[in-house]
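Tutorial sheet, problem 5. The two components below are modelled jointly, 543 residues in total.
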Amino acid sequence: MSQKEAILQGRKITKHFGGLAANTDVTFNLYKGEILGLIGPNGAGKTTLFNQVNGVFSPSEGEIIFREVEITKWPPYKISSLGMARTHQIVRPLKELTVLDNVIAGACFGHQNHPLGKAKEIAEEVLDFVKLVERRNMLAGSLNVAQKKRLEMARALAANPVLLLLDEVLAGLNPAEIDGMIEVVQRIRNERGISIFMIEHVMRALMTVSDRIIMLDYGRLIAEGTPEEIVNNPQVIEAYLGDPKLAEKLMQGGA
Amino acid sequence: MFSLLLVITMASSLNIILGYTGYVSFGHIIFYGFGGYVGFYLISQQGWSLWLATLAGGITASLLALMLGSAILRLKGAYFALSTIGANVAMMAFINNITFFGGPTGLSLNYSIYQDYGGPAQAKWLIFYTLFGLALVTVITSFMVKFSKFGLGLMVIREDEEAAKVLGVRTPLLKTQAYSLSAFFPGMAGVLFFFKNGSVEPNDAFPLHQSIEMIVMVMLGGQGTVLGPVIGAGAYEQLRSYLLTSDLFKDLQLAIAGLLLLLIVLFAPTGVIGWLRSRSNELRRILE
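Model answer (structure tokens):
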């Protein structure tokens, strides 16, 4: 079935910063149309892994294959044109440009390389999708945190990527905003067919949206499975969740 | 009037790399000097017409920027600014030592050449109109860049270069293109100016203080806007002609330029146009 076609593959990805091993032999697959969650304690190497996947820096060892092309040493803009987009953990709005221009930039330089006019149409549509359209003429720097997160999302989406990397889009949001964002994430996959790879600390949310979850600890991949398998995995509980009862609470939709 | 048209051309060109792209080219005068030298050499030694030589001056200045840029545009902030000053000084020393450019004494024209353009007075008018046209074309180019996809890419680089790469902007290519474009018009202006003066020597061709004055103009009017450099150039030119003719300030012109730059950076970093734009949304829509 096409569901099992791997769109992104990491093979033994290893990254050293001087003597520090940020990632060691990380091997994973992300299948087409899937939402894959990435969890782990702070400093486990999650964002480092993202940075290698989208080319911000290249791995010390190992290979990354995206859409059956090896992209290991590619610069970010080349990977972007192949259909990968991402949001940043610490939002990076283009402050002195308007919200609309931010999103137009996503549409005209990313995957599809549209001319300005077409990019503007797409930007309007995407801003409507993330419910920011009435703020399109504001400067991006004047948005609040939740809005900036939506802007990051819109900018990434405007490129119409094949794969979207989301780095803690829920962090710093209040419960109502989290629910809004979860809905957006689900609609991105369900309505647009975009595969998603997301780092998240908000377990309740991740349990709801992910098809599968992988976990990093000290730079190594230590667990992989469905959300149920992950929260019942003793290693995950010990290294990350901390509370053996948490699994039950999460499964009951509490926590 | 000649120098007003010159500074409008220079400031609007500089704005493409400084205002739109966010790279402070401190030694931008190198393109004026180098392009001007090449063009002047072609006119005085090779017998080219003024028009072809002017075009050649612009193109060689752009090529220089292309080569220089692919090396130094990897540097950020103050390191880039310093390297542009270094390049300017190096170029001046280089020209000083090339014999076919006349070494330290430079080159001069045989004045009979002005006869080809209808006599000295007529030639001066011709250069004036050409320079006017050049200034106009530069401002129009600046406007077109600002509202193009290319310009949007430059501004994305200015705002956040790392994010730009992730968004898919080919940052090395775009930066080099912007630098190259911003060198083109100063190169042409150099040829016209040296031709008007009838001679050129290294010290006149690469004056670093004019480079700094260009930055003051761009910052004063408002970097990253189309109108800003034009207004800044006009205002600064007025101020300079006042200072140069007053007994009290005539030796302090550069000190005052420096002070002005300091004040702008500290209190009005967006310049006149930027300040007006931040006043209201209506002004933001009108003023570009």
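Marking note: Residues 125 and 131 of chain B are 10 Å apart (CA to CA). Full credit if you identified this.
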